[in-house]
Amino acid sequence: MGYFPFFVDIGGKGGLIAGGGRVALHKLQKLLPYKAALTIVAPAISQALEQFVLENDIRVIKRAFEPEDLAGMDFVIAASDDRDVNAWIGRLCQEKGIPVNVVDDREACSFIFPSLVKAGKLSIGISTEGASPEMAASLRSQIASLIPADMEEILDYLDRLRALAKEQIADRGQRAAFLRDMAGICMDRGAVFDGQETMRRLADYREDGQQEYAKIPEGVLIAGAGCGSYDLITLRGLRAIRRARVLVYDDLIDQRLLDHASESCERVYVGKRSGKHSMGQEQINELLIRKAREGGLVVRLKGGDPFVFGRGMEEMAALRAAGIKVSYIPGITSCIAVPALAGIPVTHREVSRSFHVITGHTAAGKAIDLSQFARLEGTLVFLMGYARLAEITAALIQAGKDALTPAAVIHGGFDADAAIVRGTLLDIAAKAVKAQIQTPAVIVVGEVVGLGEVCYNGQKRNGQC
Questions:
Q1: What's residue 238's pLDDT?
Q2: Which of 151, 210, 234, 242 sits most deeply, having the most CB atoms within 10 A of its CB?
Q3: Identified catalytic residue from 272, 291, 302, 401
Q4: How far apart are CA 286 and CA 248, in angstroms?
């Protein structure tokens, strides 16, 4: 199939809906905001549809469909309860070159209905080409949740602002930047400005050549992408991606986040991951400095939180030393969120009053003496340590940690199945190998592991989720 999402003005165009039941009402409700001249033809119509057409002054013909009903119609929807009648209408329309949608018969359609989000001038159509209407509806719900309640008012305001900006800002590039920034601010605050404030902001922009009130119009923004699923990023981080001129990103980034960048955004993959560094840290620092000096906003997108074993401060220090403006957006870190996926809180009253995050890169080596961690009463969380799990557990036991201390290894994300193994320091390494746990994985050591018998989805299956 090759469905292209054209946006066609159907205001005043003739549209026929053949059918008088629930499906016909659903199609009618979708079409009504677009102000087509709609007609319903059906031998009988439901009580709900009867009420709806009375409230909206829609023409109804109470009889069976006849071919003459197609005269003057620009599009047709065959939505009766009789599949044979619907197929007949579809064939007639195809012969006459009239766009037709035949419900529950994708092959007979010349157009299909998308899952719609409508808010004033905003229209978003989502289609899976009929493969999964349920998936389209789910995505529609997610998108709708991101739209401010006053979206209609915001779009009307921004529409009026275009004409005003054209009068006040002569330079086309500056005018486009102003309108882009104002759109971002209105979305951020979910509201518009009054006339006095609008004129003040226009004046500020003309005087300074740029927007004073923009949070980070240029420089580098080091942002945490959260751990695993794309919807764990903060709203501030998501807005930064949308405004980025350059996006520099690592492994362990949900690729769906990249779809939020503008079409003109330059995407640079640096592939930084334990044991698989495609670009060294110094090279990344130089890349960020070079791209920042080219102008615009550079977003450095890192998995989890940039300051939790993410070398975020190294990059920030290098940028500051080069005189580059740099800021930071926190991210949800795996040291807390991934144990939570297994129902394991890193702290719990009367069980653990502290937690300690340790890098597994050097945890079993000479650089860190594990005896200092073995003496702690709180929870131990090891990141990037799965390859050295046996060394870590042995070193803790050797340093005096009770061999029967509960331990867990968790792999997975919030939008996929999690693999979780529980045991003790004595046997967790063997259990993880037997269960074929994959990387990346988080290791948790402490009494809180025993609290995590109920998994994130509220189910328990033989100690695993």
A1: 85
A2: 151
A3: 272
A4: 12
At residue 275 the predicted structure's pLDDT band, cuts being 50, 70 and 90, is: low
- CA-nearest of 226, 245, 254, 333 to 288 is 245
Homologous superfamily (CATH) for 219-332: Tetrapyrrole methylase, N-terminal domain (3.40.1010.10)
What is the average per-residue pLDDT within 183-212?
A: 77
Active-site choice (69, 250, 254, 305)? 250
Q: Summarize pLDDT for 330-345 with one digit per residue, the tens.
A: 999 999 999 988 889 9
57 in active site? no
Burial category of 430 from C-beta neighbours within 10 Å (exposed 0-12, middle 13-18, buried 19 and up): middle
Which SS3 state, helix, strand or coil, does residue 124 take? strand
Check if the beta carbon of residue 22 is closer than 8 Å to that of residue 37: no
pLDDT at residue 123 is higher than 50: yes
% of the chain exceeding 70 in pLDDT: 90
Asked about 250 being catalytic, the answer comes back as yes
Q: What is this structure's pTM?
A: 0.57
Q: Is the peptide bond before 440 cis (omega within 30 degrees of 0)?
A: yes
What are the strands, taking DSSP E only, across 86-206? 100-102, 115-119, 122-126
Amino acid at 126: I
Buried b (16+ CB within 10 A) or exposed e, 22-52: ebbbebbeebeebebbbbbbbeebeeebeeb
Report the pLDDT value the prediction gives residue 155, as an integer from 0 to 100. Answer: 93
The answer to whether 255 and 361 are in contact (CB under 8 A) is no
Domain 335-451 adopts which CATH fold?
Answer: 3.30.950
C-alpha separations of 361 from 25, 103, 358, 414 in Å: 61, 58, 9, 25
**Cβ partners under 8 Å of residue 277, min gap 6:** 271
Strand order, beta sheet including 14-18 = 59-61, 37-41, 14-18, 75-78, 100-102
pLDDT at 146 over 80: no
Name the superfamily (CATH) of residues 14-113. NAD(P)-binding Rossmann-like Domain (3.40.50.720)
